[in-house]
Design brief:
Radius of gyration: 16 Å
Low-confidence stretches: none
Order of helices and strands: EEEHEEEHEHEHEHEH
Distance between the termini: 17 Å
Helix content: 25-40%
Shape: globular
Structural class: alpha/beta
Mean pLDDT: 93
Number of helices: 6
Largest sheet: 8 strands, mixed
Strand order of the largest sheet: 1-2-4-3-7-8-9-10
Length: 227
Amino acid sequence: MQLQEHDGTALRYVTVEPDGYDPGRPYPMVILLHGYGSHMRDLAGLVEVIGAAGYLYAFPNAPMPIQLGYGARGYAWADPAEGDGAEAAQRSEEMLAAFFEEVIDLYGVVAGQVVLGGFSQGGSMTFRTGLPSPDIFRGLVSLSGKMPEPDTLRARLPAGRAQHMFIAHGTLDQLIPVEEARSAHRFLEAEGYAPEYHEYEMGHEVASEEVEDLTRWLRRVLPPAAP
């Protein structure tokens, strides 16, 4: 697996091209957003588990630097310490929109052949940026995330509710309680969506069983390009 780093116009990001990549062929794309205090390379390890064959992968870096102590630095899509973080989340959403357009154009990905997902705060940003754009994103994935501002988001939902979704959460998560995922599930079902929902006996993390379920879902919703 070889990561390629890009200094994008809106966000820095890394990409992974599929095995035997042919730029003259169309490929589906998976975009994953990291969590609070992490960075664009954090979720890249999932490529080796899900599989590098048949998919393009892209991992953007959140724009807000966060000091983690002992000289370490991470990044965030919004800072919960700054009120509700709504203003920063809005700025991140605008930058993500520019990033999506840039990376999809870079690789010539067909609209509707993209799955967007994220872990923790990245899952919240997935709902925020992905739900209003089913023409771009065939499916959405939230791992240990929560639904941002349901009442505000409801007004931005499209007329069609056929977008595929995968929601997974740990029952032992002490950072974002599992009730947040259950609440997101209830909200989406009430709005006419049919998410695939999973709970696992784990904390705020990504578990192997979870990734296996995600991989099966992904291959069904967005099949990889043929060899």
